[in-house]
Write a structure and sequence with these properties.
Radius of gyration: 19 Å
Strand order of the largest sheet: 3-2-1-4-5-6-7
Low-confidence stretches: none
Structural class: alpha/beta
Largest sheet: 7 strands, parallel
CATH topology: Rossmann fold
Number of helices: 8
Shape: globular
CATH superfamily: NAD(P)-binding Rossmann-like Domain
CATH class: Alpha Beta
Strand content: 5-15%
Number of strands: 7
Number of domains: 1
Length: about 270
């Protein structure tokens, strides 16, 4: 029960990585507030947690709306007595270059994936300070470290989030509030099309990652529990990469492995 007596609020927790973190936080003893725009899925996560003996609440939260984020924090305080942990996980993005991306899509992506993290902290930090401290965890990506083509706004969001994390860690450390980021690699969850571990896509992923598999939400949730728990009390301003070793390898070696795989599996 590494998070016993703690209260967490997680945006984007109705599915995927957010859902995985909510379930694991609850198993570790935290009360969890799930903020999402997917009402039915959010309620289902609350039901899962409650059925397992945990404590959880759902609040409809559009992270692009400041008042929704403020209400999410208020829900944590009113229903569970305070707030110790904020996880900024919600994301919306669209592919495109500086030429092809529409301005409206840029604005929406920035509102959900970057501005919302600032607003979440704006309302969470005072609540955490009243509890004597806390932990903010921003979900960035390996795309915040290395760029992919046709992904201008996503790379900008995730890269910006890492530096935002470091800046907030500097601002709020004196109040006992730690701020860290997690940079996941490829994480497959229920929001994706079904991935059979024996499928061609799964076997191809095994060639990309040194650990020879893609990730799942629990891989990220374990890291989040560490950053939320007291064991990491001296960790702040850090971007924790959880990517199965993807970004640790030389790209020419990876390119050679992919080429070999294609030669050996031409039917795929």
């Amino acid at each position: 029960m590494r998070l016993a007596n703690k209260v967490a609020a997680i945006t984007g927790a109705a599915q995927g990585i957010g859902r995985g973190m909510a379930r694991m936080f609850a198993r570790e003893g935290a009360a969890v507030v799930i903020g999402d725009i997917q009402d039915d899925k959010g309620a289902a996560v609350v039901a899962e947690i409650s059925a397992a003996g945990g404590r959880a609440a759902f609040i409809h939260t559009d992270v692009a709306v400041a008042s929704d984020l403020e209400r999410m924090v208020q829900t944590a305080v009113e229903q569970f007595g305070g707030l110790d942990i904020l996880v900024n996980d919600a994301i919306w993005s669209k592919g495109g270059t500086a030429v092809t991306l529409e301005e409206a899509d840029w604005d929406r992506a920035v509102a959900v994936g970057l501005k919302a993290c600032y607003l979440g902290a704006k309302y969470a930090v005072p609540a955490m300070a009243r509890r004597g401290g806390g932990s903010i965890i921003n979900i960035s990506s390996v795309h915040g470290l290395l760029a992919a083509r046709d992904s201008l706004v996503y790379e900008s969001l995730k890269g910006g989030l890492i530096l935002m994390t470091k800046e907030m860690a500097s601002d709020f450390g004196p109040q006992g509030i730690r701020v860290n980021a997690i940079c996941p690699g490829m994480i497959v969850h229920e929001g994706h099309r079904h991935h059979d571990p024996t499928s061609a896509s799964a076997r191809f992923a095994a060639e990309l990652y040194p650990v020879r598999r893609y990730g799942n939400p629990d891989d990220i949730a374990y890291g989040a529990v560490y950053l939320a728990a007291d064991e990491s009390s001296f960790v702040s301003g850090h971007a924790l990469v959880i990517d199965g070793g993807l970004t640790a390898q030389l790209q020419d070696d990876l390119a050679g492995r992919i080429a070999q795989y294609v030669r050996e599996h031409p039917e795929e």
